[in-house]
Amino acid sequence: MNNTSKTDWARIDAMTDDDIDTSDIPPLDDAFFAKAKLRMPQSAVSQVTVPIDAETLNWFQAQGEGAEQHMAAALKIYAESQKQAALLHRPT
User: How far, in Å, CA of 27 to CA of 20, rounded?
Assistant: First the structure.
């Protein structure tokens, strides 16, 4: 099975924000953000040491308290997206 993308990545890369049609996306108003909640991983936590480049660490720390929790959440989101991608591209 060939999983080669047919997406025209050069065209996508050349697009500006103004070129993207967002007309079908409802605006995120103050009411949305008033109800929004940060979802943190609920599974058991393991302590690990991971080398992080200074620029990435500084960015997370500049976001305020909870940098480590936000990094853990970002890793979980990434892992979940990779699981979903693997399911979508699994040979049938």
Answer: 15
Sequence letter at residue 74: A
Residue 52 DSSP label: -
CB 77 within 8 A of CB 71: no
How far is residue 72's CA from residue 43's CA, in Å, rounded to a whole number? 11
Cα angle for residues 83, 86, 92 (degrees, 5° grid): 140
**pLDDT tens digits, residue range 16-41?**
999 999 999 988 899 999 999 888 76
Three state DSSP letters for 74-87: HHHHHHHHHHHHHH
Round to whole Å and give the CA distance between 30 and 36: 10
Per the confidence metrics, is the pTM higher than 0.70?
A: no
Question: Which one-letter amino acid corresponds to residue 32?
Answer: F
